[in-house]
Amino acid sequence: MTIRAPVRFCRNCGTAVEYRVPDDGDTRVRAVCPACHTIHYENPLNVVGTIPVMPDGRVLLCKRNIEPRWGKWTLPAGFMELNETTAEGAARETDEEAGAQIRMGRLFSLVNVPHVGQVHLFYTADLLSDQFNPGHETIEARLFREDEIPWDELAFRTVSTSLRLWFEDRKNGAENNVHNVDLSAPKPDH
After folding, report:
1. Distance between CA 55 and CA 42 in Å, rounded?
2. Residues forming beta bridges with residue 144, ordered by sequence position
3. pLDDT tens digits along 104-127
């Protein structure tokens, strides 16, 4: 994942923006329109998803049919839309990506990923069926026991982090934990 491109033109009037500290008392450099004086704030994106689980403890993963990380496994998740709650977005993404019938649970993990401007929120979800109807973003939707999870083939660190915490809590009988995790940028390969 990469950080979104900076704002280049005013969304109000189309004039090329300037990056500077606004004259309104703000303390951060922002995209400011020199013509209409609109300040364009660039804020993190919310990614919402679920950890869908069968009663026997198997977890549903989706094999990605889109970039980034085509062909890698992930939890069903995606960008939150306007006019929906985080839980509604997580349920929608689970339906769109896996075609899974679920009962939404509680917030499980909030993972800050500041180096890409994102916050990932994963909810627990009870799977009501082992039949799936994946959408176009998913090659395959499949259930995995912990020892079957393709850990080296997971698409994102937010997914592997949340899954490891979920399995750890399950082993320890910790059913009500909410995890708040900060992920730093990965170290570059040399």
Report:
1. 41
2. 59
3. 999 999 999 999 999 999 999 999
Class of residue 109 by CB neighbours under 10 A (exposed 0-12, middle 13-18, buried 19+): buried
Domains 14-43 and 45-182 share a fold: no
Give every CB contact of residue 58 below 8 A, 6+ residues apart in sequence: 143, 144, 145
The pLDDT of residue 189 is above 90? no
β-strand 179-182 against 102-113: which pairing, if any?
parallel
Sketch the domain layout of the chain as residue ranges.
14-43, 45-182
d(CA 142, CA 152): 16
Whether domain 14-43 has CATH 3.30.470: no
Annotation: CATH topology of 45-182:
Nucleoside Triphosphate Pyrophosphohydrolase (3.90.79)
Report the Cα–Cα distance between both ends of the chain, in Å, rounded. 20
